[in-house]
Amino acid sequence: MILPITQYGNSVLRVKCASVEQVDDTTKELVANMLETMHDANGIGLAAPQVGLNIQLVVIDIPEDEEEGEEPEMATVNGELKPIRDIMPLVFVNPTLEPYGKQYLFTEGCLSVRNIRANVARPEFVKASLPQLDGSVLEIDCGGLLARCLQHECDHLNGFLFVDRVSSAAKLTLAKKLKKLAQGY
Ligand code: NI
């Protein structure tokens, strides 16, 4: 089932989320619906607040780069280097992230902030501890789009949006657009 995606201006996007203590059939149904909603909207990540729930649950699905000759994106997963396609779609609760490395700018967008894209500076790499629905834990060390996406999605679990993290000059440029979004959400 496709769920409505909460939009900028909705206070549900600004709350620190509670951890998920118990995974049951309702959680699994929610995950299936979140994946369907994300795919339908052509997104690569969706956090629970974006469907109106303040719990620490995230789904990510980064499609493979289809350009010929491109090396597949790799990550170290539980100590083993593998293509990230092997762990997609990625579903986790209660993540712990440790970003590291130099900050770099990359253009981000968000399904909850319509029609706005902006450069955001974040560390290039992430070490992440990602508890799975079955109770196991994925330990990931990665860079690239996955590191970027993990940081963006985990921000959602703390009530942050990418537009909070743009430069002050960019904030000025975005202010009008954001005000409009907040009024019309
Ligand atoms: Ni987002």
Keywords:
3-stranded antiparallel sheet; 5-stranded antiparallel sheet; 185 residues; 8 strands; 25% helix; 3 helices; alpha+beta; binds nickel (II) ion
Short description:
This protein is of the alpha+beta class.
Provide an overview of this structure.
It is a single chain. The protein is α+β, with helices and mostly antiparallel strands and 185 residues long. The chain has three helices and eight strands; from the N terminus they run αββββββββαα. It binds nickel (II) ion. The site of nickel (II) ion (NI) has 5 residues, from α2.
Distance between the termini: 22 Å
Bound molecules: nickel (II) ion
Radius of gyration: 16 Å
Q: Can you list the strand order of the major beta sheet?
A: 4-3-8-7-6
What sort of overall outline do the alpha carbons produce when their principal axes are compared?
globular
- Main beta sheet strand tally, sense and closure: 5 strands, antiparallel
Mean pLDDT across the residues is 95
Outline the secondary-structure elements.
Elements: H1 25-40, E1 45-47, E2 57-60, E3 74-77, E4 80-83, E5 90-93, E6 96-110, E7 113-131, E8 137-142, H2 144-156, H3 168-184
Antiparallel strand pairs: 1-2, 2-5, 3-4, 3-8, 6-7, 7-8
This protein binds nickel (II) ion.
Residues 110-112, 152, 156 line the site of nickel (II) ion.
